[in-house]
From TrEMBL:
The organism of origin for this protein: Streptomyces noursei (Streptomyces albulus)
Protein name: AraC family transcriptional regulator
Repeat keyword on record: no
Residues involved in a divalent metal cation 2 binding: H174, H198
Residues that hold a divalent metal cation 1 according to the record: H24, H26, E137, D248
GO molecular function, one term: metal ion binding
InterPro entries: Metal_Hydrolase (IPR032466), TatD-like (IPR001130)
Record Pfam families: TatD_DNase
Amino acid sequence: MAKQDNDTPPPLPEPLRVPVADSHTHLDMQDTTVEAALAKAASVGVTTLVQVGCDLAGSRWAADTAAAHAAVHAAVALHPNEAPRIVQGDPAEGGGGLRADRSRQAARTAGGDAALDDALAEIDALAARPEVRGVGETGLDYFRTGPEGTAAQQRSFRAHIEIAKRRGKALVIHDREAHDDVLRILREEGAPDRVVFHCYSGDAAMAETCAAAGYFMSFAGNVTFKNAQPLRDALAVAPPELVLVETDAPFLTPAPYRGRANAPYLIPFTLRAMAEVKGMTEDALASAVAANTARAFDY
Ligand SMILES: [Zn+2]
Ligand SMILES: [Zn+2]
């Protein structure tokens, strides 16, 4: 393949004939205005977006953006990598905070728990807003956060499950290298009626488990990657009525544009690759995905 210029946005794909939603995006991390992103996405048949907050500021922004744009729905949460930062007194400072020296960490834990409770109370209040259709992304991330953050992540995850159930919103799960604990905690707490595994990363056996529980599985651009056969095997067994598509933009740009910035208008590349895996026509899968996303987020 010719060498790509990674600063050049990928070209517009051929429009979908049946419009779908990007079930998980981060417009606040993309180098564009909301209006421009929505117009570009709509021009290729991506007519609805779920804007996902990862911290308090991002969650407020998601709710406000959804209130201002009919095509946008919001999900609000403290990301699993954010919860330990709050407990340790280093919110939004990045991974360095997690490596904070242990004595400092111990001294802060009591106050840190209260800080996490305060942050969760604000998420709860945001979750009551009508334009907020989901609580997430929450869950567990054992890849980015080390063992010192596990307790905070699990406490935060349990609290988000409770909020989603009480507010009647979808639970949006971020699960990175934590499949068994995510499924166990969902069982222990009792899952909300609607659960979405965002950027689904389990294997085919886990897809059967999710299907049996009625959990939605949202596939991102990495399903197109050459080395992602286990993910395609999972998609192959996932029931069509539980499959969603997402960008997780600006991350996980689908092939053949891996390495460039992702955006909602690139959904058609991922959806077409998924249709091939499912042995469905593009239109049939798009119809299913559109209906599934509306059901998952109750809009
Ligand atoms: Zn995530
Ligand atoms: Zn995300």
